[in-house]
Design a protein that fits this description.
Strand content: 5-15%
Shape: elongated
Number of strands: 4
Helix content: 40-55%
Largest sheet: 2 strands, antiparallel
Order of helices and strands: HHHHHHEEHEE
Distance between the termini: 96 Å
Amino acid sequence: MSYGRFDLISRNANAEINCRLGGIASAAVVSALFPGPLNVRTSLLPGTSLAQGLFIEMFLSAQLVFTIFMLAAEKHKGTFMAPVGIGLSLFIAELTGVYYTGGSVNPARSFGPCVVLHSFYHYHWIYWLGPILGALLASGFYKFIKMLEYETANPGQDFDEREHEFFDPSTDTSRPIVNLVSDGSAYVDEGNSRPDSGFPDINNPGPELQQPPAADSRNRQPLGSAMTGGRDDSHNGHDEASASPLPYDKGPDAEAGKASPRE
């Protein structure tokens, strides 16, 4: 077993233990804070069978887990609203199931009060098996729609205005890489695209990681040439014949080494 897999199992086991301890501690605080017997256990409504209670818990848990997958695990423009969507999903689950099963949707919710009261119903197992089956159902359905590439049903839904200008779903549904230039114009890298994941890809960087294209070096003037008015004096072997003539003409005193200014 690899170290990474062992670390994943260890973290999941730690989270499960902490959830159970949290449920017990919460039930103990409620029992000590309020007078009278603790009446917060989850139970089946009279007339609700074990099979009905099990499947109610399973489907309500699947709804909640699938909502978490689509709003929190999947990154898109609506990810910042994930807490609201997850809260609404939990509200709907409780609104539907609290009357029939107590709306557990979490083994820790049912386990804590039973430990504090030292009493367990004979059907307590449905509050463990139901959420586990629901999580497996939601995970399987999430993997299924990812395999079908559900993003292609509405391509470009998370693109910005610049990306929409260069996006043509009839030819390519991948996310175009739009690069901004200093003059405000934009161009797309035709030879490079990245999947619509919502994250910048280090190997295929998007506009937030790319630099504008460098100017053509042939259009640039060397620093030394610019400082000398077009003449390249950066080396000692320049051609004297190619230099422009000085604004002086040789006069009668040329033999004496003097030059007279041009009239």
